[in-house]
Design brief:
five-stranded mixed β-sheet; two-stranded antiparallel ribbon
Length: about 160
């Protein structure tokens, strides 16, 4: 199952040859966003300027995504200077709100109606996690499963 997500990601890319949804590359400026949160406020990437940020695209319908929420929450608790932001992908707010609460997400989860943010970041499936440094540049991304050593390795690059 763990290998199936990245493999399906690569197979879909090969079959569609659609490079418009290529994930944002390391070293590039993170695409800006300003989105409504599940709590009703507005959150923008600029709000986190000067802090390392983990941007996690997920959906409540994605079992792997829900399994990763506690890992990201624990990482945020261990690295208080880093922020985690979730961006919903093809999901319903009420369902996502319940899933986030159940999994213990202690960070902002944002709505992306029309998928403009997902498109700007090159997201066409979940989960995918981006690591953004203090200067607003993408340090790396991980499609599919995260585990603690991988999170720590990516966070070390942006802290």
């Amino acid at each position: 199952m763990v290998a199936a997500v990245p493999a399906s990601f690569l197979i879909r890319r090969a079959l569609t040859d659609d490079r418009s949804r290529e994930p944002v590359r390391a070293g590039t400026e993170a695409p800006p966003f300003s989105l409504e949160s599940l709590d009703g406020g507005t959150v923008s990437l600029e709000d986190y300027r000067g802090r390392p940020v983990v941007v996690f695209f997920w959906g409540s319908w994605c079992d792997l995504c829900r399994d990763m929420i506690p890992l990201l929450t624990e990482a945020a608790d261990r690295h208080l200077d880093a922020a985690v932001v979730g961006v919903l992908f093809r999901d319903e707010p009420d369902t996502a709100r319940a899933a986030a609460r159940e999994a213990g997400a202690g960070w902002d989860t944002l709505l992306d109606p029309g998928e403009a943010t997902a498109t700007a970041w090159g997201v066409d499936s979940t989960p995918i996690t981006f690591f953004v440094n203090r200067d607003g540049r993408v340090s790396g991304s991980v499609p599919g499963q995260l585990h603690r050593p991988l999170i720590d390795k990516q966070l070390a690059r942006i802290l």
